[in-house]
Amino acid sequence: MKPPTRLADALFLLGLAAYPAFLLRKTLLEGGAMLGYDLFNYFFPAKTFFAASLARGTVPLWNPSVFFGAPFLANVQMAALYPPDLLFALLDFPRAVAISQWLHLWIAGAGMYALARWGWHLGSLGAVTGAVVFTGSGFFAAHMGHLNQVHAGTWLPWEALCLWRLAAVGGRPGPGWLVAGGIAVALQLTAGHTQEVYYSLFALGLLALGFALFPPAGASRRLPHLLAFVAVCLNGALLAAAQLLPTVELTRLSYRQGGIPMDEAVAYAVDRTGLVETVLPTFGSRADQEVTGYVGVAALVLAAAALGASPARRTAFALLCLSVLAVTLALGVYTPLYDYLYRLVPLFSSFRAPGRWVLVSSFALAGLAALGSDALRWHAAPLVRERQAARFSFGLVAAGAGIALFCWRSNAVHAIQWLPHARVTVLWMLAGGGAVALSLAGLFSPWAWPRLVLLGVVALELAYAGHEAEYNRPGDPALYSDAPAIARTLQDALAGVDGKPQARVLSLAVEERLDPERLARSVPAGDGDFKRYASMREALKPDLGVVYGLPTIDGYDGGLLPTRDYARFKSLLVPRELPVPHLTLPPQAAGRADARLLGALGVRYVLTDGRNGAPGEGWAPRDAAPGAAWLYENVVAIPRVLFPDRVFSELDPDAAIRLLYGADLSEVGVVEGPVDPIIAAPGGAVRPNTPSALHSATVVDFRDNALELRTEVDRPSLLVVTESYYPGWRASVDGRSVPVTRVDGLFRGVVIPTGTHQVRFWFDPLSVKLGAAVSGVAFLANAVALILWRRHVLRARPSR
Q1: Is there a single domain that holds both residue 89 and residue 190?
Q2: Is residue 406 pLDDT above 70, yes or no?
Q3: Considering the entire predicted model, what is its pTM?
């Protein structure tokens, strides 16, 4: 059989686009809107803010509407510098999600095909099989609503391809694969999920180290894979510096800095009694999305074929070890290995949800499936066919022995496994038995039809396994396009400078606790999923306010945010000693709100679910407000600007917060150090001040990255803006630069002299400018290297 031509490979790559289109047909082709908790409450607000910023001609550096303001670009999960996410600035959100996820599944499958073809030198049919297994794997099916995880996982096979090619070519390789590998790493770094980047590069680093210790057959050098890995990672980091440097700056200020506690780190690990449910398709109710990692029974049969019959034994063994390691680490503390890595390996303790290791196991098993399919090709020599059949049988027996050992171990430690429904067992047996029969037929048939049919079995099994996934349960696009009535009411009530609200809204409502009668009046129609997500809108979940232009002091992130400063300040907002940093306020505040404190923080309106009655004293009910939640107004809310008459100086951040317990923030402020002429001495000393007879501030201009005020005071005063202090915020008074001081452990403050002045704050972080400069130089260097290399190749060609 002649090897496929470049045209044939191109046609195969184009044809791979059909499979993810089939998987996503209900959203991509039929117009449904993909739904998911994080997709609706996190990515929808983030992409809406991103698109709105670009539409205003503003670089999305800062989001003033959550967490008292928070960095946007520096928060890598926002993927502000990820080129494919420009789709969200061009299309409405549901359409952009469908096209973006289809595009990334296609890119992932194409990467797996390219790795198998040009990295491992397999035939096209085996490469297509690996691509289908990776694209249809449970990891992608379960995480379809997690945009950043899908986008980051997409680039893993491309990184592996560049690593293999850069290490395997003979002589002195040109810079082409180094540049391509750097681009793949840079795209993964900017895609928005640092954890999957870490796991991907950790896995590839282990493969590179393994091939350095045990080089593949015929390799003339021991270290090419390891050197290629280091070079590709370094190039990718330089190319992505515009994202990395701001993210590193945020990481140093994040509540996760220095790692997170073990109890939080192992949340969403694979339960040892649910391992079977994680690694095999259930064809119905699926495991938690964070731990779903099936590749199909037929694909596992092909993996056994790779271990027994593939001539690329070291590659197959390396992928087997990688898949076993990934599944082991996904178990979290059920294995001592995770604890060792948590304590000893840098950055390992910064991530939670060990179940996300299934990305690596899915990649490794897809690679094994590609090797196995390629190994089942017919050979003319009968002896070769018989040996392959024997090895394949040995692989199946070994796999069966491994399963038996696992069952015995589970019984020995009293970890009774989840057991499938009889229908599921029958489907497993049909898929597995059919795959074995077709595999043997492929070995002894000179035609390709058995492997083609087997490819169809793999594709259909994975498609059916995902029939309960989020992409197969689309909702009404109106959930994204329509605003709830309460949002429109608050927009009118809070309109400020240029139509932007200066006061804030805080929702303490939990959607599950909304009054059923009020909810039925607000959302009279729709199925269960529609009402579920509509109730989130009615409760105005924290980040959804961004969509409707309603700023809040709360926020939903779970990544690098909130900052340590916010997590510390949160103890003033939540009636408990140790609030959970990454949880939102509604489940922790229990519907209670201090009107005096929140008024000083600019919160004018509070929504509650009514579980504990009114939020407290000082809140006036707005009985005529529409919606399922109760709305209360604080008529003395101060919009974002304070002039405290008493100022304390305290260098210890924890002690500074303790000074604020029970204090009126509109009258008392705590700064990090002496600020003349307000503070005379540090260490908590207080200079009593006579309350000022005159201090006023009017907002002249309010933008995402800037704020301008006109102030008037009758004596030198500390002006406090209840917006988050963060490196990169600058200030000027009448055009003269002045230092920005951290006040109350969280806010920005400047000293202004007596009289009337123009005060301006703007966000101009050095990390962004330095990162952009490094990325620019790296892009230029890569381009020059490619041009020079191309000229060298052309000159070296003999003239005709």
Answers
A1: yes
A2: no
A3: 0.92
